[in-house]
Automatic annotation (TrEMBL):
Organism: Paraburkholderia tagetis
Protein name per UniProt: DUF6088 family protein
InterPro entries hit by this protein: DUF6088 (IPR045738)
Organism taxonomic ancestry: Bacteria, Pseudomonadati, Pseudomonadota, Betaproteobacteria, Burkholderiales
Amino acid sequence: MKLEARVARSIRRRTGVVILRSELSKLGSQSQLTRVLATLVASGHLIRVGHGIYAKTRMNRFTGTLLPAAPFESIAAEAFSKLGIDVGPGTLARDYNSGRSTQIPMVAVVTTGRRRITRRIQVGTKRVVYERVAKDTL
């Protein structure tokens, strides 16, 4: 069985939407995986979310176009959990959830605590923005 078929089968069998490149490292070498993942992205089976992070796609039944298989916020949350990064909702989302504000936040802002994170997670034009907590508030 070719490597592309093995990787595609492995991706299909996974329950989550997010696939890390490190999860597929046992199937082949780095250069082989780079080539196979690039062909899967070009064919539309996957979309690239970040460095070494990919997400499954699905066909939109109304327009017939390929879309990510989950909303952006859940893709970002699953990616952070798989990477082992603890994040929380941003200040605006916390205010909305607690009832202090009626404004729905449109930008995905996450709080990283005192940890500095520069990893870019992006799907299309939507991108995660990081917010750090100051030392004196902890």
